[in-house]
Amino acid sequence: MLRSMTAFSRVNHVDSIGRCLIEISSINRRHLEVQTFLPKEISIFDPEIRKRVQKKTARGLVIVKVSLRLNKDTPFVASANNGFLEQLKPVYKEMAKEFGLAEKEIALALLPKESNLILFDEDPAFQEKMEPFFFAALDEALEAFQISKEKEGRVLEEDLFARMEKLKHFLSLIENNSENVRELLYERLKARIKEMLPEGVSSDERVLREACLLADKADITEEIVRLKSHIDLFLKTMEHESQQGKKLEFICQEIHREITTISSKTNETKVSILTVDFKSELEKIKEQLQNIE
Known about the structure:
Blueprint: E1 7-15, E2 18-27, E3 32-37, H1 46-56, E4 60-70, E5 77-80, H2 82-99, H3 103-110, E6 118-121, H4 124-177, H5 181-196, H6 205-217, H7 221-240, H8 245-265, H9 269-289
Helix pairs in contact: 1-4, 2-3, 4-7, 4-9, 5-6, 7-8, 8-9
């Protein structure tokens, strides 16, 4: 089953410690990147958060946002960052003098925007209570996140199956219109050689051999066989494997290589038109694969 790289989950986890709201979202990326936005109280959990996300996700930009509202009896150690405040005082004093304002006005306007006013010390009792509470919420959010990825993946999978059926149809038409191309081209070249030779002069064996080689080069049987194989592999990969976006992209590259070879080898108008249609549909498939994990 395929999974989409774009997904979203939102979990509001509540128990005796308080409330933990977690939002997980993701967008397309060629490789995995994890961004976290955490309250300072739980910043110590950041490495474990990234580890759990990496276990669930192969690629994409995954954004984890957490907000906490703790009950008043939940133990944690917080203190004012007095050293930081002392450093701010002369700055605020200078700004007040420059703009003709009271220091209090400057402080009230700017202090709420400072992120280092409060220090949170590691308290074993707090961490002991917070760890199971928080990671229960995170696991719940990750599970919902996976469900969202699979739901979007099913839509993409249906679209890709339909488009691959179109490729199979185009390939069948190409095969039907290229039957006996080698023989027809050989006869055409042989007739053209006879027209060019003076009357009464027989075709040189070497010239006919070259005509035969040119006809062989126009044969696209091998490319058609390989295309069928690549399409079958693409469909099997979608059905039986997850987190295979990169593999599917690689298979598409091989399909593109074969159809380009056919396009360059053929002189048949119908086949040339069909290869254009084939390539157009293949580009749509490649665009969709940018959304697959």
